[in-house]
């Protein structure tokens, strides 16, 4: 029988890598939860307020928190060491006047995604949605959904992911902040690479929520007459946006007519049957030369391990846990939906971050 030392020596680099991967997965939930706490404590903002290139100790940061906990700095230091190990912060070691080592923390590039930009938009509210207790509870019911059917979110909360926020005002705010910030982040990236709005005179955003997507588009293309279309309760809660008209209705019944229609992260919420109803209404609302611009993740035909593929399948699992029939799709699946709803063809135009711009052509 081999000794433990012999077993360790006989491990190949691949086996070692696999072992470390499994060990990290066993505590994989810790990173998003530490980030959640850091966001709630406004940790990144406190470092930012210290100025460009600032390096702060845990004691200096803890002194700015509203706390009487004498161990706050110790806890913060452990959290920030963890975040530094995942490259969310930089950590440097210095020696204080008494000769004691002290860790100082500063920004790493990834951390900047959690700071508000000039429009108050950041990735922080986007992260807060999946780690919220209402959303997170769904994952405990995934096995039951496999064996018994049903939707994990409904099993956890008693109603679906669209109805529940209306009844839970706290979660409603979390939900809407996440959607608004995500819409702005994706659209800003999109406008850097996609030129398809340049000649558009009228644009209808179908399922546009509070109008964040159109707000970004109109700020760059103020000549566009923009119509934000969503269900009446959503429209009623939307803030006014310059250049954006808000119209309430049901996309399963009809869609406002427009030269060009837009849908961002709408189709992935619904089954193929529901998507066909939406797409047929979009087809009817367009002129013969019109087009529908769809912004969605696009899955590869066969799974692979590159980052884009992993993100796509992560969101596919999320859709499976919260929506009846909701899923991410491959290019072929989008093409099939387009043809079944009357569109002549589709074309993947460009990718902005994780999302693809797909144009659906009526003729």
Question: Which helices and strands occur, and which strands form pairs?
Answer:
Layout: H1 4-10, H2 13-26, H3 30-40, H4 43-49, H5 58-62, H6 72-85, E1 89-95, E2 101-107, H7 124-128, H8 133-136, H9 142-148, H10 152-157, H11 164-167, H12 169-193, E3 202-206, H13 212-220, E4 225-230, H14 232-236, E5 244-248, E6 260-264, H15 272-285, E7 291-296, E8 298-299, H16 307-322, E9 329-330, H17 331-340, E10 345-352, E11 355-361
Parallel strand pairs: 3-4, 3-6, 4-5, 6-7, 8-9
Antiparallel strand pairs: 1-2, 7-11, 10-11
Describe the structure.
The protein has helices at 4-10, 13-26, 30-40, 43-49, 58-62, 72-85, 124-128, 133-136, 142-148, 152-157, 164-167, 169-193, 212-220, 232-236, 272-285, 307-322, 331-340, and strands at residues 89-95, 101-107, 202-206, 225-230, 244-248, 260-264, 291-296, 298-299, 329-330, 345-352, 355-361. By secondary structure, the protein is an alpha/beta fold. A hairpin with a 5-residue loop joins strand 1 (89-95) and strand 2 (101-107). Helix 12 (169-193) runs parallel beside helix 13. It is globular and about 80 Å long. A seven-stranded mixed sheet has the order 5-4-3-6-7-11-10. Strands 1-2 form a two-stranded antiparallel ribbon.
């Amino acid at each position: 029988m081999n000794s433990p030392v012999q077993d360790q020596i006989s491990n190949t680099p691949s086996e070692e890598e696999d072992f470390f991967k499994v060990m990290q997965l066993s505590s994989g939930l810790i990173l998003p939860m530490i980030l959640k706490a850091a966001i709630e404590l406004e940790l990144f903002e406190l470092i930012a307020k210290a100025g460009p290139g600032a390096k702060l100790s845990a004691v200096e940061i803890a002194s700015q928190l509203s706390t009487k906990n004498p161990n706050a700095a110790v806890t913060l230091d452990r959290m920030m060491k963890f975040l530094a190990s995942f490259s969310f912060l930089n950590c440097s070691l210095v020696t204080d006047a008494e000769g004691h080592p002290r860790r100082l923390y500063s920004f790493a590039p990834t951390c900047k995604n959690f700071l508000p930009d000039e429009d108050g938009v950041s990735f922080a509210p986007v992260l807060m949605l999946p780690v919220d207790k209402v959303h997170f509870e769904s994952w405990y019911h995934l096995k039951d959904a496999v064996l018994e059917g049903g939707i994990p979110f409904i099993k956890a909360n008693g109603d679906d992911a669209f109805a529940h926020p209306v009844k839970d005002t706290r979660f409603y705010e979390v939900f809407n902040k996440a959607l608004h910030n995500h819409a702005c982040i994706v659209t800003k990236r999109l406008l850097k690479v996609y030129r398809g709005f340049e000649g558009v005179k009228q644009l209808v955003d179908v399922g546009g929520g509070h109008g964040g997507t159109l707000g970004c588009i109109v700020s760059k293309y103020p000549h566009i007459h923009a119509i934000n279309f969503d269900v009446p309760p959503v429209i009623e809660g939307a803030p006014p946006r310059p250049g954006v008209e808000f119209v309430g209705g049901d996309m399963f019944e009809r869609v406002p007519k427009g030269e060009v229609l837009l849908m961002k992260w709408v189709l992935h919420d619904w089954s193929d049957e529901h998507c066909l109803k939406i797409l047929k209404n979009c087809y009817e609302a367009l002129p013969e030369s019109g087009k529908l611009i769809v912004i969605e993740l696009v899955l590869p035909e066969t799974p692979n391990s590159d980052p884009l593929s992993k993100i796509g399948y992560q969101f596919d699992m999320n859709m499976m846990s919260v929506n009846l029939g909701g899923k991410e799709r491959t290019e072929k699946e989008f093409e099939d939906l387009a043809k079944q709803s009357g569109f002549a063809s589709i074309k993947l135009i460009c990718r902005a971050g994780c999302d693809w711009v797909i144009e659906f052509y009526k003729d």
